[in-house]
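Notebook entry, structure prediction.
Reason for the run: the old model in the group folder had no record of what sequence produced it. Starting over properly, with the input documented here first.
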Amino acid sequence: MEWHEELHERADERIGQLDDRLWAVATALHERPELSYEEHAAAERLTGELAADGFEVETGVAGLSTAFVARAGTGRPCVALLLEYDALPGLGHACGHNLIAAAGLGAALAAREVLAGSPGSLLAVGCPAEERGGGKVALAEAGVFDDVDAALTIHPGVHSWSWAPLTAQVELKVTFHGRAAHPTGDPEQGVDALSALLQAFGAVSVLRQRLPASSHVQGIITHGGEATNIVPDRAEGRFGLRALTTEALDRLAEDVGACAQGAALATGAKVDVERLGRGFAHFRDNPVLSERFTEHLAACGIHATPPEPGVYPGSSDIGDVSARVPAIHPFVAITAAEYAVHTEEFAAASASPRGRSVMLASAAALARTAIDLRTHPALVSRAWDYFRSQERNGH
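New structure, fully documented this time:
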């Protein structure tokens, strides 16, 4: 199939022209990090840039004040570029979301110019609260992706991987109810809720020993009593669960619940197990799209490989988007592999010269991929064919 090299070259040229403008956006976000659902300055800056270049901007999408959808064109095929811009408490942009925002913005501006007059539409979707809360889940449930044919984004990392093995995730709140008593005056009247919670932690430790590498349970105690001279009548813990698929996560949640129920039975306490929010679905890579993006990234000088087997870097609300439409979520390295995301070193890398070059290359590769989708209906069809085959196979 003959691809439109001239359109790619025009997109590359436009990204080059946008270099200083995009880096100004990336550094502005980096210098003023905003937490989940509080990204007002970032959303205002990004929507202003998009509106200035002719996008029609809708703000407050899905009831989220810092979410937005910027649209150019109408109808199908429809390609969505996903922008993230929330930061981490105390660490700022230690996940590189300022680069995600700038890369997505650059791709949107370049693709819009190159595709002017072509059939279909282009969206730049502002996705708040990836770090806490999962803005993309709310956007998906509000129907933002109902008429989208492909959702494209990148994520800075310590490896360049063509796709990300992101697991399903949910948090459970486990609350034990006992009976207060004086620990020496009338201990026989007490039912120690904290002891029951500790028993549950012990059972979870045994469960953890037989979990596959793709599954994980991490717990904390959020309430353990009021005073040392009172048998605790209430104790609360929270458990973060991850698993390879959404179905495996549901089974793991049942197993952790069974650990809690067993501890309650053993201690005479009562227990409530509650899911906190809906969690995140696992990410479903669409290789029709990720392979196309990887080729374009290589043309921009960055060579991504498949992910390292058995390594599961985390979870993201992109999983819920990938369950609805063909999607990509590659990692692009901005620092050496011995470092890690969510660290001060990674925050510094998000404002480094390497971060800048990665942002520009990613913007160009995203723009090229969007152009391919808008100008080659067969590519869109292949992406949907793969997506539907995964649905039929239960993946």
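Summary: The longest helix spans residues 5-31.
The old model has been moved to the deprecated folder.
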